[in-house]
Specification:
Layout lengths: L1 E6 L7 H7 L3 H7 L4 E7 L1 E10 L4 E9 L8 H13 L5 E6 L3 H9 L3 E6 L2 H5 L4 E3 L2 E3 L2 E7 L3
Parallel strand pairs: 4-5
Antiparallel strand pairs: 1-2, 2-3, 3-4, 5-9, 6-9, 7-8
Length: 150
């Protein structure tokens, strides 16, 4: 049975999973302490995500990760559905920033997000090493947005 919990203490215990989606620990350290961490369990831990407040109308999904062997089984989508419902009375919009890779963009679009804007050279300016998703080097951050009050 799938269960999702909000984690309020010892968030760093999930670092191994968070690093799958954001491979530089000091970048995670910028948003993890003030963010809401959610963990999805189906017998054992499958996925986590972190959401932060941007302003009174907008929150941002900063990290979502599912262990590799459980990817493609709907856990990430279930977590996004859960947090979209969880925040719909507090925020109008949810943002998510990601690299420009077709599979990931397609995943977010399938979860109800649409492309919003781009931050040029985000990955090359903010990470201490080149970032790759498969064989695609990540350069710009692509932001997508979702209306939570639909």
């Amino acid at each position: 049975m799938v269960k999702i919990e909000r984690i309020t203490e010892n968030k760093k215990q999930f670092l191994d999973l968070l690093l799958l989606a954001d491979e530089q620990e000091n970048m995670i350290d910028k948003y993890l302490p003030g963010g809401d961490l959610f963990a999805l369990y189906d017998d054992d831990l499958k996925s986590v995500c972190v959401v932060v407040s941007v302003n009174s109308e907008t929150c941002e999904l900063k990290n979502i990760a599912t262990y590799g062997k459980y990817q493609g089984k709907g856990y990430g989508s279930a977590l996004i559905d859960f947090i979209s419902d969880f925040y719909k009375n507090d925020y109008k919009t949810m943002l998510v920033g990601t690299g420009e890779t077709p599979a990931i963009l397609s995943f977010y679009e399938g979860c109800g997000f649409e492309i919003s804007h781009r931050v040029k050279n985000f990955f090359t300016d903010n990470y201490d090493h080149p970032m790759f998703e498969g064989d695609i080097q990540l350069v710009d951050m692509i932001y997508l947005k979702k209306d939570l009050q639909k």
